[in-house]
Amino acid sequence: MRVVLTLIVTTICLCTYSSAIFNEYTSCNSSSFIGVLKLFVNKKKKSIVRNEQKELNIKPVHALDKPFKTATFGMGCFWGAESLYGATKGIMRTTVGYAGGSKEGPTYRNLGDHTEVLEIDFDPEVISFQDLLKLFWNNHEYGLTTPIKRQYMSLILYHDEEQKKIAEQSKQDEQKKRAPEIVTTEIRPKTNFYPAEDYHQKYRLQGHRDLCDTLNFNSKLLQTSYVGTKLNGYLSGVGGLEQFKTEVETMGLTPTQKEYCTYYVEKNEGQGLYC
């Protein structure tokens, strides 16, 4: 009887204190709890992941050696936009930044006449520029048909004449759908782009600090990482669990990292974009 009680108390304690593992991992009622138990018993949050990386020869996939094209959009606050596109199939990298203005070296506190934008590298064999525009028109947080300050304005910065033509036709089509409202989106050539400060890059993913540590992020990788791009979207609830399962093997995650990410993808699925 004493043994049984000891096991019960131990289980309760493990559930109660599992929140210490990977920061926010608070539920002991999930399919991923086995991974949490491993981490808890080890008492070193990241050591199991490091051991898995070494023993299984697994490295985070930060770069894909594939041809790509680039799109640049302003959709209001860039945090939500980065999560949206990150969990979209065919997206290889995302970087938030400032563009469209004349000020040299803008910062978030001294933006000048620039706009918050998202730069998207995409695989044209998987997703088209037209597909990216469909997401653009349907996922503005604000400002699509209401004039707003330049920092959050609706903006398409085209990279070539083909993008310009597609964007202009797409805007005409969108205007017809939304009449009598007026679409305020500006379409202009991309002439500059200044990456935002590190704390803006992959903003949702950075809330999972220990996971980020095991992915070996630095200032550059926060801007360019493939696995960072994907997880910043999926962990925010975009894309959903079933789609995540189709892409997770491309990211270079260890078994414990997969368990952790699966838990949060499922937990946050469908909660919607926000800033």
From TrEMBL:
Alphabetical keyword list: Oxidoreductase, Signal
Record InterPro entries: Met_Sox_Rdtase_MsrA_dom, Met_Sox_Rdtase_MsrA_sf
GO molecular-function terms, A-Z: peptide-methionine (S)-S-oxide reductase activity
Signal peptide interval: 1-20
NCBIfam families named among the record's database cross-references: msrA
Family in the record: Belongs to the MsrA Met sulfoxide reductase family.
Stated name of the protein: peptide-methionine (S)-S-oxide reductase
Source organism of this protein record: Stomoxys calcitrans
